[in-house]
Amino acid sequence: xxxxxxxxxxxxxxCPIQKQDRQQLLQQKGCVIWxxxxxxxxxxxxxxxxxxxxxxxxxxxxxxxxxxxxHGLNQDLSFRAEDRSENxxxxxxxxxxxxxxxxxxxxxLISPYQKDRDACRALMPKGDFIEVFIDVPLHxxxxxxxxxxxxxxxxxxxKGFTGIDDPYEPPSSCEIVLxxxxxxxxxxxxxxxxxxxxxxxxxxxxx
Length: 207
Ligand SMILES: Nc1ncnc2c1ncn2[C@@H]1O[C@H](COP(=O)(O)OS(=O)(=O)O)[C@@H](OP(=O)(O)O)[C@H]1O
Ligand SMILES: Nc1ncnc2c1ncn2[C@@H]1O[C@H](COP(=O)(O)OP(=O)(O)O)[C@@H](O)[C@H]1O
Known about the structure:
Elements (H helix, E strand, L loop, with lengths): L1 E3 L2 E4 L8 H8 L4 E6 L6 H14 L4 E5 H4 L11 H20 L3 E5 L5 H10 L5 E7 L2 H7 L4 H6 L21 E4 L8 H14 L6
Helix pairs in contact: 2-8, 4-5
């Protein structure tokens, strides 16, 4: 019996069908591809391009998008630092379950704090947390502004907007950096293919 936070007298129950069995069935390895970057950097677009490309190769993936999860599981959370941390913690735990199911789980959240991303990494077996920094400068994201949120933040109508009056900590070391700077114009599908190459080279697209 163990006690975990507020849950007392609980016991882990194992099933004889394990992650490895599910991976064999799917002919792939479960993992988490953690996309992080500013609002407007292209996380959702790249997540979809990646999922589409994996699908066409017969590989099962699932996207956990911050915006979408805030419509359901995380609708009780705001954009205060503690709530962003809880948002990331919960999505990290859900992503871990998907990876354990053998699925290539793609998360798409700003996830502005290094310590929160590191805590999600620590949940996973070594190598199975693949952090991808969408490195697009603020001025590019702000010029894109597809939802008009930067304009509202600059006008003071949204407080605590990431990159404007709330912090974003770029990864200090991560598996993949996808850059969109100066003359370096890559399409979302070019970026998705960089991630696919990483997965191929590291054996995630076979059991
Ligand atoms: N204050 C503030 N700061 C940043 N973003 C804001 C804010 N308020 C609303 N939004 C919208 O919420 C989306 C980010 O949600 P996330 O769950 O990814 O954020 S976080 O990881 O908890 O920081 C983000 O979506 P993306 O543009 O897809 O990143 C915004 O559309
Ligand atoms: N590689 C790219 N090159 C040019 N525009 C892009 C690229 N990736 C995304 N975009 C555009 O940038 C905007 C923001 O993309 P989105 O995926 O919504 O970002 P995020 O999920 O990080 O907020 C969209 O209008 C999208 O079409």
